[in-house]
Amino acid sequence: MMNSLLVQTIISYLLIFAVPMVLPVVFLKVVGLSGLRTLVTYEARDTPLHKLDPRLKVLYPVGMGILSILFTWKFMLIVFGLTILPWFWLKPSRAKIKVLTVMIIGPAIAGFWGQGMYYLPPPPIHFIYKFPWTMAWLGSPGITTYGMIFGLQQTSRVLVTVSTSMLILISTDVGDFSWAFERFRAPPHVGFALTAALRFLPEMIARTHLVLRAVELRGYDMSRPRWYEFRGWPDYARRLSRCVVLVTVPLLIGTLRGTTTMAMVADARGFGTTKRRGSLRVHKTTAVDIWGYVILVTLVVGALVLNHLGIGARYYG
Amino acid sequence: MSSAALGGQLRADDVSFAYVGAARAALRHVNLRVAPGEVVLITGASGCGKSTLALALCGLIPSRVHGELRGRVMFGATALSGMKPHEASQLVGMVFQNPNLQLINQTVQSEVAFGPENLALPQPEIAARVGWCLDVTGMAGMRTAAIVTLSGGQKQRTAIAATLAMRPRILVLDEPLSDLDPVGAQEVLATLQRLARDGGTGVVIIEHRVDEVAPWADRVVLMDDGRVVLDEPPRAAWADPGPWRATGVGIPDMVRLAYAVPEAFGSRVPLSVVEAANAVKDTWFEEALAAAAEERCNAAGVPAGRPPGQRNGAAVGAGLEAGPAAGPPVLSWDGVSVEFDGRRAVDDVTLAVGEGEWVALIGANGSGKSTLTGLTVGLGKPSAGVVRFRGQPVRPGKVFDHAAQVALLLQAADDMLFETTVLKELEFGFRFRARPKDPVLDVPEAVEFFGFSGREEDSPWELSQGGRQRLALAALLVGAPGVLVLDEPTTGQDADHMRAFLRLLDRVRARTGITIVTVTHDIRGLASRAARIVLLGEGKVRADGPPGRVFAMPGDLIRWGVLAPPLARLQSELLGPAAGEVLLDVDELASTALARRADVERATSPGAGALRP
Q: Of A204, A305, B473, B562, which has the fewest CB atoms closer than 10 Å, so is most exposed?
């Protein structure tokens, strides 16, 4: 029975669509809009990571990102492991860990699942499951072992940058970012744009959440059909897309009102009046900073040297 | 900047202003003076031009808000109208209404340092300014706190500190109290008075909550239709109620009481509860109130000296137990708790609301009021307990299903409008739901009842703010909800709009008999309108009873971040615990006192001195 074309088609259908369908649902259930709000929120605490030189913090994701590009998969594992270590130092709140876990595992599953189906290594190909012709015409002959491994490798490269950036966002006051950018001679507007985005993104998400609730309170049906109610899903998609149009008006009006006030506040507080801003912060370089710089520079330089020597270097061609 | 400018005062000389494209000027020939160290209250009905005047006083008109400006705004010998915003803000600083929109940074100290950093001041100077501003606003202990963790009052004080860091000589605040609970408002007002008295900063407060600001003000300015119609010291400002009545702006309760009982207060108009209490202490008025209170206590069967309902010296929450009207409750919370990030926002609440009741949930910001009412439509999920509507459990997340039973009007009514015309807005709810056979109001009735006749095809955004709130309410009532829940419906409204909205609710109730639950920290009118008050503090029910009884315990109310209405505080101040059940209407209090005086005078022989003159 398992070999019948119909059953094979159904299994293939589930394999192809299960992950893309399940991941957004898992995201909404576990994280949701309110969880996303906490994702980029600074956690004011007194850890060594919080006190680290902001310039080093800005350089850290960049440096680790370079490493993730240069190395092969095995070396990548080491780099990925290194990016996880500082999280134990930071000890984020449980709410953040929950959101971060979903944000990391979600793309990882999506990445290795997608590549598993669509990355085709040179023959001989080892299939975990081969799709029948009724599904193969969609472009994937089946799920391959090497494709999944390749997907995991690529996802890990992305996750190195995600992990390091998140670590820095959670442990750094935006004012420190601005300070670091200014020390790097970036225009003050770069720091201000980042400041405003990080400060107001959670507010915007909260407001979107509120307006979506308001639509329901007004009697707009946002209820999801059960997974087996196939006939209900197109209608749900239609209602969802119509809802996006509906909530745009109050969101836009509210946002425009807010930005007008914010612009006046920034003007009144003298933003943009001088090329170089002053700073409340006086950063005294500590031994931890020096060690941080040494480690980061060693890692990047070491990676470049190894790459040049052909050790652990990715093959392009 | 010249020393003449620094030592001068803020002046608006014959200022008129019209926004681009506006048919009518927002400001018309305004003349105003603000001296250093002076606290000036500017009030007036919504749309009278107060906020526009604030923008002009700070020099943001015409540099950032465009239109036709005539006249001049001067600081000493310096014209603010021609200055750049950051130059003007070092003379006159502006604090906007919503602190969330003006706090750009993530921590308190980085927010306060933002301005001085932009001016490229040396680090020691920035540090000194930040330190001073945080000290003077009482925020020094929260220096490194993240903005998102602050309460409303703390955010507003941070906004004030950030504005002060520019070292302005005059501070203009546009409705700084509108989103604050009474205790938060008092914190902010105390800060402003400190700035004026000790720091010599001139303070201009634009506010509807006249009752709260009046005792702190040196001068009161009343605006109407873009003009200044009155500019006097407080006592003189309320010497003649005419302009106040004409503009529909609320007169402080103590002033109204003094007008209503001139025999007790004489010609001196009290501005605060303490002033009023001192004026009538040991007079016939106090004795008349005491006698009336004793009579009420006897009628209620409660010994004088203890509020009715409070038994055996129990805690407030355990003492006042009103419960719903007879019959099965329409809404109930049974042992409900809600947790956010390990913090209990609602803690083991058991409460029931009877059919046709009007219940007001009061409490400080963050006391769990909105969380509790949100549960009735499935917003949020209790970590323990059950919420029921007419005996059936409310299922968390099923907002669409429960919104048909419980109509929830959010504080930001603008967020509840989605359509292009008034009529479509009223029809909105019937896209997914059949028209009810027995609606609270059908659509044509709602158009008529809420005053939208002839405006059916207008865009909701063409209506006034009050009009939009009415429309959102009407749109909820065209269904068949059993309960109407109003979340902070009068916050930020002037007295006239608030009275109009309360009258509307009275009419809705008279017409439909609908059960109403209001959530508010704005106790000006709403709380006393309700038949029952439930006080929440730190997520728990702390008191539950008729308004007259709950407001008779000002000490307990303050403990939970609520300030009783001035009339209630006056009676408590004069009578202490013997106040029992306080009266909350000025006319009722005045007539009760006068009636008691007459009764006693009739019962005793002339000159016997039963009541002191």
A: A305
Q: What is the extent of the structural domain holding B146?
A: 3-245
Helix (H) or strand (E) holding A288: helix A287-309
Q: Are residues B61 and B195 in the same domain?
A: yes
Q: Residues 334-373, chain B: which have Cβ within 8 Å of A?
A: 341-342
Please report which confidence band the pLDDT of residue B528 belongs to, taking 50, 70 and 90 as the band edges.
low
Chain B residues whose beta carbon lies within 8 Å of the beta carbon of residue A195: 104-106
To the nearest 10 degrees (0 to 180), the angle between helices A5-30 and A94-118 is: 160
CB B12 within 8 A of CB B42: no
Separation of alpha carbons A270 and B105, rounded Å: 15
Q: What residue in B sits closest to A256 (Cα-Cα)?
A: B101
A21-57 pLDDT, tens digit per residue, is 787 777 777 777 667 766 667 777 888 888 899 999 9
Distance of alpha carbon B375 from alpha carbon A223, whole angstroms: 17
Q: Furthest-apart CA pair in chain A: how many Å?
A: 76
B608 belongs to a structural domain: no
- The confidence band for B602, taking pLDDT boundaries of 50, 70 and 90, is low
B468 to chain A, minimum CA–CA distance in Å? 12
> Could you give phi then psi for residue B237, rounded to 5 degrees?
-60, -35
Say which of B117, B399, B429 has its CB closest to residue A279.
Answer: B117
- Asked if the C-beta of A211 comes within 8 angstroms of chain B's C-beta atoms, the answer is yes
> Which residues in A lie closer than 8 A to residue B122 (C-beta atoms)?
278
In the chain, the amino acid numbered B8 is: G
Asked whether the predicted pLDDT for residue B90 surpasses 60, the reply is yes
Domain at B544, CATH number: 3.40.50.300
In a domain, B265, yes or no: no
Query: In the listed set B245, B277, B302, which residue is the last one of a domain according to the structure?
Result: B245
Residues 159 to 198 of A: which have CB under 8 A from any B CB? 173-175, 192, 195-196, 198
The DSSP letter of residue A132 is P
Q: Which positions ≥6 away from B201 have C-beta within 8 Å?
A: B36, B37, B164, B168, B169, B170, B171, B195
Q: A47 in contact with B at a CB cutoff of 8 Å? A: no
Do B364 and B510 lie in a common domain?
Answer: yes
Label residue A315 by pLDDT band (50, 70, 90). low
Asked if residue B326 and residue B184 are part of one domain, the reply reads no
Tell whether B304 is covered by a domain.
no
Number of domains chain B contains = 2
**What average pLDDT does this structure show over A160-170?**
88
Q: Any idea what DSSP says for residue A71? A: B
Identify whether B536 is part of a domain. yes
For residue B426, the chain A residue with the least C-alpha distance is: A218
Instruction: Give B159-186 pLDDT, tens digit per residue.
Output: 989 998 988 999 999 988 877 777 778 8
pLDDT at B7: 53
Interface membership of B598 toward A (CB under 8 Å): no
B428-469 pLDDT, tens per residue?
988 778 788 778 888 998 898 888 988 999 999 888 777 888
Strand order across the B10-19 sheet: B27-34, B10-19, B67-75, B78-79
Q: What are phi and psi of B333, to 5 degrees?
A: -120, 120
Task: Pick A257 or B202 by higher pLDDT.
Answer: B202
Please provide residue B125's backbone torsions phi and psi, each rounded to the nearest 5 degrees: -70, -40
Residue with tokens 């056979």: B437
Is B226 in the same domain as B338?
A: no
